[in-house]
Design goal:
A six-stranded mixed sheet has the order 5-6-7-3-8-9, sandwiched between helices. The chain has a four-stranded antiparallel sheet with strand order 11-12-10-13, with no helix packed on it. The protein has a three-stranded antiparallel sheet with strand order 2-1-4, with helices on one face. The longest helix has 18 residues, at 295-312. It is globular, with a radius of gyration of 23 Å. It is built from ten helices and 13 strands. The protein has helices spanning 43-51, 91-99, 108-114, 130-140, 160-175, 187-193, 211-218, 271-280, 295-312, 340-343; strands at residues 3-14, 17-28, 32-36, 58-63, 76-79, 148-152, 179-183, 196-201, 204-209, 223-227, 242-243, 260-264, 287-291. It has two domains: 3-216 and 318-343, P-loop containing nucleotide triphosphate hydrolases (Rossmann fold, 3-Layer(aba) Sandwich); 221-291, Alpha-Beta Plaits, CATH 3.30.70. α2 (91-99) packs across α3 (108-114), α2 (91-99) runs parallel beside α4 (130-140) and α7 crosses α9. GO terms for molecular function: ATP binding; ATP hydrolysis activity.
């Protein structure tokens, strides 16, 4: 397969803050690659390095077999996290303006329909809802029908129905051959869209793979949550491992109260055996819920590992507002990223 986005050993330091520390990746044509990671992990800095808007201190990046700053901008679409076009232009006028920046642009009304705003073309940008505004911004990156699309938190602020519209659009673009690199904090978005996922922590990709492969390797086991005040000792005769989650544990299986016991490695067909165990011993319970691990568990497990490593062996990262986790989306402003029409 042909790699159209490549990075090898990218490093970037802002003062004492390490934004990228050897980040490497390769994205093939038509692939959707999702970057996930904590605030300050380096996701936006990596996107900037790949789009030629930030010069890395060391390492190499190539897009469409060229240096990012040499790629024909007609072939790229870039959506930064923060994008504020003129508020007193209508949605159609904005897309018409951006279409005018390219040699062979798409019909703005077509693009509005693609992002689910066919009926809002005449509405001033400032009068659109926040989610609609974000969809206009997504549309601005598509007017040139790009070969490679970089989307930094594309669905932030978009309602569930609008989010699904954007998801379907991204999937259709990839099916037609567009290569997509996106950042997201929405694990459902990454699971739905991504062919592969890269988890960025402290400026380096600490895990890469398909969502299923990452879940198998890092997600842990299935969980049957039992709402009960019974002590975990009452479950010693059960053939499955059990635990009572700590109240302060920052994980998805964390109990909000003390009244939850988690039974692991239970298949759906085995839940009845656990219920029989409870009833045979008169163990009162008020509810049962079963779940299998997903990308959220992967994210939390690897983020926990990174946090523990940082605590045990602190580095020279600066102690900024994000706890010294590197410069990223939230530690530096997006003013350095030009509007979509100038970088797309």
């Amino acid at each position: 397969m042909e790699a159209v986005v490549e990075a090898e050993g990218l490093e970037k330091v802002y003062g004492e803050t390490v934004a990228l520390s050897g980040a490497s990746l390769s994205v093939e044509r038509g692939e959707i690659f999702a970057l996930i990671g904590p605030n300050g992990a380096g996701k936006t800095t990596l996107v900037r390095a790949l789009t030629g808007t930030t010069e890395p201190d060391s390492g190499t990046a190539r897009v469409l077999e060229e240096s990012p700053d040499a790629v024909d901008r007609n072939r790229l679409g870039v959506l930064p996290q923060a994008f504020s076009p003129p508020a007193r232009l209508a949605a159609r006028e904005l897309l018409t303006y951006y279409a005018g920046l390219y040699d062979d642009a798409r019909d703005p009304d077509e693009v509005l329909a693609d992002v689910g705003l066919a009926d809002a073309g005449g509405t001033w940008y400032e009068d659109l809802s926040g989610g609609q505004q974000r969809r206009v911004c997504v549309g601005a990156t598509l007017v040139n029908d790009p070969e490679v699309l970089f989307l930094d938190e594309p669905t932030t602020g978009i309602d569930p129905a609008g989010r699904r519209t954007v998801w379907r659009l991204i999937e259709e673009l990839a099916s037609a051959g567009t290569t997509v690199v996106l950042t997201t904090h929405d694990m459902a978005e990454a699971e739905r869209l991504a062919d592969r996922v890269g988890l960025l922590a402290d400026g380096a990709l600490v895990a890469r793979g398909t969502p299923d492969a990452l879940v198998r390797e890092h997600g842990g086991s299935s969980r049957l949550r039992i709402e009960t005040d019974a002590d975990t000792g009452a479950f010693r005769g059960l053939e499955y491992p059990t635990e009572r989650p700590a109240r302060n544990r920052q994980r998805s299986d964390r109990s909000e109260t003390d009244g939850t016991v988690v039974v692991r490695n239970v298949e759906p067909t085995e839940i009845a055996a656990v219920v029989d165990y409870l009833e045979d011993r008169d163990l009162a319970y008020s509810g049962l819920s079963w779940s299998e691990p997903g990308l959220e568990e992967v994210y939390l497990e690897l983020a926990d590992e990174t946090e523990r490593d940082r605590t045990v062996a602190p580095t020279n990262r600066s102690e900024g507002s994000d706890g010294g986790r590197g410069s990223d989306d939230d530690s530096r402003t997006d003013d350095e990223l030009p509007p979509a029409g100038e970088t797309a």
